[in-house]
Amino acid sequence: MRWPADTDIGSPERIPRYVVGFGVTLTLVLIGEIALYRVFVPTFVFRGVFLVGVITTIPFLVGIAFGGRWLRTSDLSPARYPRVVGWLLGGLVGFLFVNLALIVTMPTESWVQAVSWIRWAIALGAGIGLLVGCLEGRAIERTLAAERASLRAEHVEEQREYLDYLNGILRHEVLNTATIINGYASLLYEEAATTDQQRRWAEIVIAESEEMSTVIDDVRILLQSADGELQLEAIDLSRLLTDEVRKLEHKCGPVEVETSIPPDVSVRADDLVARVFGNLLSNAVEHNDASTPRVSVAVDPGPETVRVEIADNGPGIPDSTLETIFERTESHGSSHGIGLYLVRQLVSRYDGAVEVAETGPDGTTFAVELPAASESQSTASSSAHSTEAP
């Protein structure tokens, strides 16, 4: 056991050392007392009253020394140490006073018996006081911890309500505005734009309004992923990836997609996992400067985890942004925006991992590993989907 290295003898952090030292000192006093009695009054050592006093003193001496070590290793705040010592001293003085009164009113046979009685009273009073102080300190700490936990829960609930309110504003006000902007920009592009420059401006407005809608939807997904208790189930990854690839081809136009997706591969996740692969597939095309974007999706199922690799033939990721690509961005410096941050948050939600497995001028490969669903989970999930089907 290592004690604090501070040199301030009045520091509360040194109190456990003093308590242990006090217990050791009382133990040495008892040993010295026995040695002296063996020399000068050997018959008293073997008297029943002395032996009972020694036997009943030893547990309290051990308790005092152990109590000091417990203070040092427990989660009790050093701010509580002086109060614990106060209880120790209070117990010692109080019990000693009572026993001194008894010694006065009931005279002992000899001074030797009186000294032994006083030593016994000091050990018992100090031990009981230390025990009461430790118990009170733990009770106070637990009460304060419960109060802090209650305050944190209230604060979290207030934050949740505030975030829900902001989410409502985003979806009902900002999203509606983005939809209106997109609609009018589309009309301008189709009916009012007469030059290539005007059509280009309209395309920019349309693209930015669609990006705004995507970000708002990502915020909703993030809030949903943090709301309530996590309930994971077996998700048919084979079918999910096939659906996401079909959506990609429909949304992004001409795309060469190569897939290697074994049937009946399931992972332990929830419905939000579709957002992981939707974002990665969209990034593979949206940030691709090739004349014909190519995307490959490969699934490698294992007994414990399922690995999914999504590769593209884009320009690669610059080294300057590679280390922070999954972090939140406060500006538009990162073209990947909130999408990859959302990917990492969701993958972490499922106790999985996501990384940039490879990147360069020939393209980038993202790798996602998710826990494989057990056979019983997959069977239960399939039965549930069959029951829900019309």
UniProtKB/TrEMBL annotation:
Pfam entry (one):
HATPase_c
Question: EC number(s)?
Answer: 2.7.13.3
- UniProt KW rRNA-binding keyword: no
| Low complexity bias spans | 372-390
* Entry-linked CDD domains: HATPase, HisKA
Domain Histidine kinase: start-end pairs:
169-374
Q: Which GO terms describe its molecular function?
A: ATP binding; phosphorelay response regulator activity; phosphorelay sensor kinase activity; protein kinase activator activity
Instruction: Give the transmembrane ranges.
Output: 18-37, 49-72, 84-105, 117-135
Q: Name the keywords, alphabetized.
A: ATP-binding, Kinase, Membrane, Nucleotide-binding, Phosphoprotein, Transferase, Transmembrane, Transmembrane helix, Two-component regulatory system
- The segment annotated Disordered runs over 370-390
Name-wise, this protein is histidine kinase
- GO annotation, biological process: osmosensory signaling via phosphorelay pathway
Decide whether keyword Membrane is in the record: yes
Judged by the first EC level, this protein's enzyme class is transferase
Q: What reaction gets catalysed by this protein? A: ATP + protein L-histidine = ADP + protein N-phospho-L-histidine
